[in-house]
Amino acid sequence: MADLMLTPRNAWADLTVAEIPGATLKPSPTRHRVLFQARERELETRMKAAGMAAPPAILRARMMDDVALLRPGPDEWLIVSEAEISPKWHEIAGPGAIEISHGYAGIEWCGPRVMLALSAGCPLDLHESAFPVGMASRTLYGKSEMLLWRQDHARFHMEVARSYLSAILAFFGETARHLPQS
Q1: pTM of the predicted model, to two decimals?
Q2: CB distance 142 to 171 below 8 Å
């Protein structure tokens, strides 16, 4: 019998993205995601043993070795990477780590009007004094759950379940129709 090899469908296939002048939304090159739970001291010990810096504080993210480590909750951690996640990171994550890459899609938001576009559907205060660069939090966009990470003044990364991607893009389209064109 022949081997059956299934290839996951691209999350962005057949989806269109509305345009908002000054706010760009595009697929993230992120391809690999591992979710795990660990107490902070336990993770600090594992990372120190691997010769790495301490993990980020709660609701923060940090880039390390071309890998982003996000901490959206007290004992919750998410490793996000464009390249395959190295064995060192899998060892740090521990035996309870879950590979969630095929269930999620990454979205890059950038531009001078990105705050306006995000604020239309996100209940968080996204002003830099309340949501500074490096902050990462679970929240909503429209009615869809997401994990939002501020990477720069006018650049955000969003991780969403693939099943929510079309709803997020539809809400972005509605936002595009109602935002003032300036």
Answers
A1: 0.89
A2: yes
